[in-house]
Amino acid sequence: MADALLETLRAIVGPAHVLVDEGEIAPFLTDWRGRFTGRARAVLLPLDTAQVAAIVAACLDAHVPIVPQGGRTGLVLGSVPDASGNAIVLSLRRLNRIRAIDVANRTMTVEAGCILAAIQAAAAQAGMLFPLSLAAEGSCTIGGNLSTNAGGTAVLRYGNTRELCLGLEVVTAQGQVWDGLRGLRKDNTGYALRELFIGAEGTLGVITAAVLKLYPAPQAALTALVALESPRHALALLGLLQARCGATLTGFELMSAFCLQLVAHHFPDLPRPFSRTHPHYALVELSSNESSQHAQGLLETALGAALEDGVALDAVVAASVQQALGLWRLREHIPLAQAAAGKNIKHDISLPVSRIPDFILHADAALQAAFPGCQPVTFGHLGDGNLHYNIAPPVDVGHEAFLANQAAINRIVHDAVTLFGGSISAEHGIGALKRDELAHYKSPVELDMMRAIKAALDPLGIMNPGKIL
Amino acid sequence: MADALLETLRAIVGPAHVLVDEGEIAPFLTDWRGRFTGRARAVLLPLDTAQVAAIVAACLDAHVPIVPQGGRTGLVLGSVPDASGNAIVLSLRRLNRIRAIDVANRTMTVEAGCILAAIQAAAAQAGMLFPLSLAAEGSCTIGGNLSTNAGGTAVLRYGNTRELCLGLEVVTAQGQVWDGLRGLRKDNTGYALRELFIGAEGTLGVITAAVLKLYPAPQAALTALVALESPRHALALLGLLQARCGATLTGFELMSAFCLQLVAHHFPDLPRPFSRTHPHYALVELSSNESSQHAQGLLETALGAALEDGVALDAVVAASVQQALGLWRLREHIPLAQAAAGKNIKHDISLPVSRIPDFILHADAALQAAFPGCQPVTFGHLGDGNLHYNIAPPVDVGHEAFLANQAAINRIVHDAVTLFGGSISAEHGIGALKRDELAHYKSPVELDMMRAIKAALDPLGIMNPGKIL
Description:
With 469 residues, chain A is of the alpha+beta class. Chain A contains 16 helices and 18 strands.
C-alpha cells in the first residue's frame, strides 16, 4: 500500500518533491532544539493548495497520517513526526508567495510557507507594519505562527497571531479546500472556523494561506530600560504607562537581575546601562504615529512621574536607534545566555497580569523548599502576563544532573500556575511535549469538547496525530 | 412527559421562575422589531450557573429544545422560539452579577445577563473603559453580545465583542459547566473553544459568564464631521487619519447626504453643521490618553491636511462635549428617521474596506436597473467595512408595497456583496432570519464543517434549533 501511495504522491507533486532518502529527509525529522528525532515514510514538498488537497485526499484513502510542517522552529515537538515511521511530513515551505497586498484594506494575503521576516519586509515596503515579531522570525513560517497562535514581543499592543488574521485558506482533513480568505473586520456568518484552525497545531487541517492585518507603520519608536525594586513595582509601572500612553505603549518586558547577570557574564560586550545592579528591570517601548518628539515627550513625562512616585528606581531612555537596539539585545540575549550557561528547565506560562507578583513569590518559595538554591531565570512579556520562568540549578549542581528533576519542577510550577488562574502554555502551544501536562491540568469537560471537535473534523485521525490530544 | 419536565424545572429554579401563563410569557416570544412571535412551553428564569446546568440536563433528558435569551434586542430572530411551541425559553436576565473587577489585569468578570450599559458604568466607576458600544446598550445583555459577536461603533479601535473577551463560562449542550473564565492575554492550550461559543448564537451551549477586557479610560475624546465628495474620498480620509493618528482614531462612520436629509426632515431640532448639502459625510472620533489639547492638535492638523489635499470638502470639529453629542446624534438618528419614514429593506453587510466605493457604485447601479428610483440609505462603520445599506422605495411607491421586493433586493445586494468579497451579516448574526441566505451563499465545505461541529457538541440538537443552520 505504501508503495502505491508513494506513486500517487509522486504524480501529485512531481518525483523531485517526494523525498524518501534518509539523508534528504533527516533535516525534517528533528525538532528545533534537537531533543527529538522522529521517522517518516516521506517528506512532501507541494507547490500549491491544490497539491496539498490532493495529498491529503490520497493519505486519507490510505489511512496514512500527515504531519504539517512550517519552519520547524516550534518548541513543543508539534511539527515533527513520532517514532513510528507511519506518517508523511508535509512541508509547506514551497507555498511561499505573497498573493496580494491591499493597503487601503490594511491586509495582505500570504501563503503558509512565507517566512515571517519576509512578510514583515513586504509590509514595510508597502509603508505598513505587520507587527508579529519573535525570535525565530528569520526561519519560522506564517503557517506555523498561525497553527501555534504565536505571541512574541508586540502582543501588548497588537495581540497574538490570532488577532492579526482575518481569513484562512485550509485544506480540511477530508482533503477539501475551504476558502475562508476573507479580508473583513466584521463577519458574523456562522461558527468561528478561522479561530478553530488557528492554534490547532495542524491537528484539524492544513492552513495553506491567510489574510493578515496590517497597521500603519509608526513614525517613531522609543525604548527605555527602567530599574525596579520588585515585580509589584513593574506592575505599577505598567499600569502607569498604560493609563498615560494608551496604545502608544507597544512593549513591556520584565527581566530579573539574575537574567542580566547571566547576559553580562556570557556576553560582556553588550551594554550595561546602569552602574549598579537593581532587583528587576522593565524594557519599555513606545511607538508613535505622530513623531519622535511626541514619543519622547510622552515617555519622559511618564517616567518622570514613575520616578517621582517611587514606582521606578532609575531609568535610561535610548538616545538613538543604536542604543535602542542595544537595550533590546539585552532582552534577546537572555535565552542565549541561558544556553551558554547550560540547560535549564523551561516554562512558558501566563497569568492574570495582576497575579504575577504573588505567583513569583509563591513559586519561588515552593521551588526553594523543594530544591534549595535553585535559580529562577524570570523574564517575559509582563504586559501580556507571559513569563518564561526557567529554573537553573543551584551553583553547586551540574546542569545535566539537575534536568533529572524536570518532572517534579514542572509539577511545582504548573501547580502554582493553576492556583493563580494561569496557563501552562502561553505562546508555544502543546505539541507532543506538553500533551501529558495538558491532560493533567485541563478539565474533563474541556478535553471532551476538544476530542469531540477533533473527531468531527478529522474522524480518521490522520492530521498530526499525537499532538495536543 | 412535558408535565413531569415542568415539575423538574420548578424544583430547579423555584415555581415563581417557571412562567407558563400566556400573558406572562408573551413578552419573551416576540422579536425586537415585532416581526415574529413564536411559542414556547415555558419561560425559565434561573438565578445562577448551577441552575442553568440543571435545566439543560433536564431538557436533554426530555429531548426538549432550549432557546437561550438575553435582552432580546437581536435583529435576526436569534433569541425567540419558533412557532412549534416545543421549546422552553431560557432567559439569562437574573444572572446579572458583576463578579469581579481586576483593574491591574484590566479585566472584569460578569454574568451573561448583565446589561451592557451596566457593564460600561461599572468599568467607568473603576476608572476604566469597556469599549463595546451599540444602539441597544441600555437593553442588550453581554451574553447576547457575546453570542452574536456584536460590533458597534468602537470596533475600528477595540474590535468586536470577540476581541473584548478573554474567557467564558458555558453550560454545554450536555448540561455540564465548562469553566473557561480565564483572564489571560496569552493561552495556547488546545482548541479555541471560547471563540467557538462566541458568535454561535446559543446553538452550541449557553454562555453564563465572561471575563471581559478593560482599557484605561481616555482623557479626552474629540468628534468632527467631515464633508466629502464620495465614498472614495471617505476611504482616502480614513487612510490619512489612520496613518497620522494611529490608535487614537476610535470612530469613523460614513453617512450619505440622503441619510442626513432623512434625519433633518424627521428630526428638525437636531444640529445642521453645514450650511449646504454635501454628497457624503464622515463622523470621526479621536480619543487620547494624553489630553484634550493632544487630541485637538492631532485632529486639526490631520483635517487641515485633508482639506489641503482635496480629500475633504469641509469639516467642523465639536467645540464642546455638547456639540460632540449633537454630531453623534445625527448618526444615531438615521435608523430612527428611517423608521419614521416607513419600513425599508435592510442589510447588514461588510466588505474589504478598499472595495466599498466600487461596491456602492455597482450595487446602486444594479438596484436602479431593477427598481428605478429606489433610494439607498447608505451609512455605517466605514472603518470596519461595515455598511447598513438599506433600500427605501422610490418617492412614488409606498413603503409597504415596496417590501414585496425584499427577496429580489436581498439577492441583488447579497450577490454584489459576494462579488466584492464581503459578508451578508457583518454584526447582526444569522439567527432564523438569514438562515436561508447563509445556506445560499456559504460554501458546502464550510457548511459541512459547521454541521459537523454542531453535531459534535450538541448531538441531540436541543440548543436553539433552527438558528444559523
